[in-house]
Amino acid sequence: MSSSNRREFLKSSTVAAAGLSLPYFFTGAKSIADEQKAESANDRPLIGCIGTGSRWDAVGPNAMKLGDVVAVCDVDADHAAKGRQRSEAENKKQGRERKVDVYEDYRKILDRNDIEIVTIVTPDHWHSKIAIEAMKAGKDVYCEKPLTLTIDEGKKICKVAKETGRVFQVGTQQRSEMGQLFLKAIALINEGRIGDIQKIHVAIGGAPTSGPIPIAEVPKQLNWEMWLGQAPLVDYRFKQGPGWGNSRCHYEFRWWYEYSGGKMTDWGAHHVDIAQWGLDQQGVGGPVSLEPIMAKFPTPYQDGMPTQDDRYNTPTEFHVKAMFPRDIEVAIRNECNDLGFDNGVMFEGTKGRFLVNRGKLVGAPVDEMKSNPLPEDAIQKVYKGMTPSGGNAHMVNFFECVKLRKDPISDVYSHHRAMTTCHLANIALRLDRTIKWDEKTEQIVGDEQANGWLSRQARKGYEVTA
């Protein structure tokens, strides 16, 4: 049997079995990760990596445990070369001498019929365009968070995902890993251990300031025009400093609204997601209003726009009061030191409260698990009937769902709902006024100016279309 036919056979036979009984990973059979280790090189899914910067150093190797990278792409030639070198070394380490092609233009990867899966690890403002085109090209997608730059982009991604039936995992690893602390937290809510949720406190950290950043020569290895993509064509800026220095590019793109959403989308994509996942367990819908309580920006703003273009512009401190149905408040802040934590999510219910972050799960309902443990299937219930496995659980879940043709634990639809809250919070902060949201129409109510911010005009040639 040819490798391509065998892959299709495995997919169809697994789906058929899932329709008749529990998924195979409940039967005691080997996991897909173990199964693929034992298969020959031609039987492993082929992967194209779009974006090979610092974050890819985690995403790429995790994907290579389950499939073979055959192509990498980056608009920074140094990043691309590093991606190629690491991919070929990993292929060799696993006994497969496989050449890895290098491209500057991501469309070269999407044009290849042999590539089945793509990882997208680019700056945020590139996620949606590449992801939509990848799905249309018949690829299954693993994309880093935050998935979108605007609410309109999220609507387009959801539309194309439904139309194409592609499997799409968003890189919100808290839903799978971190010692399963967040899964246990959601299971506690699902099992009624805190009663009805009354309030949620979310602390996601603040953003840095930069001061003036001078115009600088574009590095020779960087295609700056293509890096900018849909964003306005502007000068490259860089100032030497500790760590990465200060710039408009690479890691520091997070602190510019032109390319991202500051901490509100960078860490909000993690913790606001957990807050709304908890609300989902009790059938609570999306936000109905968002009120800016406090914000400190590193540059003056006028009509929601920064008045200086030579420095970071996302808020360094903030507090947004997001109201949800049943009069539930979700307070999104840079820190909650008055409550004893500066990063994490605190759920308050009618029966108690607990705090969860990447290092701990604490509170009376947690202590009570010693005498009243969660049911054996509690984690599986919140993990869509599947079982997270080990330190690479999020990527394993994606590859398992590729075979099963089902939505993974961090699907585009739940992520779009969480990012909608984050994007609305940013709009409220920038305009410095309360906005009201209609979840059914996905429109801001009674505010024409704010409604205009649900999308952005892309630079010609870089439009995001569904």
Structure description:
The protein is of the alpha/beta class and 466 residues long. The protein has two domains: 3-173 and 396-404, Rossmann fold (3-Layer(aba) Sandwich); 178-208 and 261-384 and 413-454, Dihydrodipicolinate Reductase, domain 2. The chain is built from 16 helices and 19 strands. The model is unreliable at 1-30 and 32-41 (pLDDT under 50). InterPro entries: Gfo/Idh/MocA-like_OxRdtase_N, Gfo/Idh/MocA_oxidrdct_glycsds, Gfo/Idh/MocA_OxRdtase_bact_C, NAD(P)-bd_dom_sf, TAT_signal. One of its GO terms (molecular function) is nucleotide binding. Residues 214-283, 392-463 form the Gfo/Idh/MocA-like oxidoreductase bacterial type C-terminal domain.
Highlighted features:
466 residues; alpha/beta; Rossmann fold; six-stranded parallel β-sheet
Shape: globular
Name of the CATH homologous superfamily of the largest domain: Dihydrodipicolinate Reductase, domain 2
Number of strands: 19
- Count of domain modules: 2
Structural class: alpha/beta
**Which blocks of ≥5 consecutive residues have pLDDT under 50?**
1-30, 32-41
CATH class of the largest domain: Alpha Beta
Helix content: 25-40%
Major sheet: arrangement of strands: 17-16-15-7-14-13-10-18-19
Instruction: Look up the CATH topology of the largest domain.
Output: Dihydrodipicolinate Reductase, domain 2
Task: Count helical runs.
Answer: 16
CATH architecture of the largest domain: 2-Layer Sandwich
Q: If you compute it from the alpha carbons, what radius of gyration comes out, rounded to the nearest whole angstrom?
A: 22 Å
Q: How would you classify the quaternary structure?
A: single chain
Domain Gfo/Idh/MocA-like oxidoreductase N-terminal: 68-171
Organism: Blastopirellula sediminis
Domain Gfo/Idh/MocA-like oxidoreductase bacterial type C-terminal: 214-283, 392-463
InterPro entries: Gfo/Idh/MocA-like_OxRdtase_N, Gfo/Idh/MocA_oxidrdct_glycsds, Gfo/Idh/MocA_OxRdtase_bact_C, NAD(P)-bd_dom_sf, TAT_signal
